[in-house]
Amino acid sequence: MKSFPFLRAICLFLFIALTGCQSPGPQSENGLTEGAENMALATYSNAKGYRIGVDDEVHVNVWKNPDLSVKVPVRPDGNISVPPIGDVAVGGRMPTEVAQIIKKRLNTYLRDPQVTVILSKLKSHKYISRIRITGAVTKPVSIPFRQGMTVLDAILEAGGVNKFASADGTKLYRKLGEQSEVKPVKLKRILKKGDLSTNWPLAPGDVITVPERAF
Question: With contact defined as beta carbons under 8 Å apart, do 119 and 58 qualify?
Answer without folding.
Answer: yes
